[in-house]
Sequence to fold (154 residues):
Amino acid sequence: MNKKEIEELIKFVSKSGVSEISLETDTVKITIKNAAPKVIEQVVTAAPMMQMPVQVAPSPAPVAVAAPAATAESNYITVNSPMIGTFYRASSPDKPNFVNVGDEIKVGHAVCIIEAMKLFNEIEAEVSGRIVKVLVDNSSPVEYDQPLFLVDPS
Fold:
């Protein structure tokens, strides 16, 4: 089961009003509960006896776009992290960065990788424009909805 399938399952549960759903394969067991405070619990098992509970936001987006900043950078769009993990600017240390300051990006363009639980998730832009600032250092931990990039949409 890949990341997109898990995200679609989470979106389905949050929109459908279903209170709980469980799915089990040979390597993964997922239980999603739609509780009153809108927290989804996901249990992933890599081996039969090893379980890791994870708290996940109700409907993660590939890349969240926040409202413009309230400072002198008010015309810029903030690209935020869609998950908790470790931020990487390139796919490996010997490869070039996905984006640098001044680069033009389009919707769907890969901007970084976020590693979460040994899974490397390529993050794609949901906005077109020019990268103005990279807000996170390479190999740094990031939180859900943490600003990663400033983009000038003009």
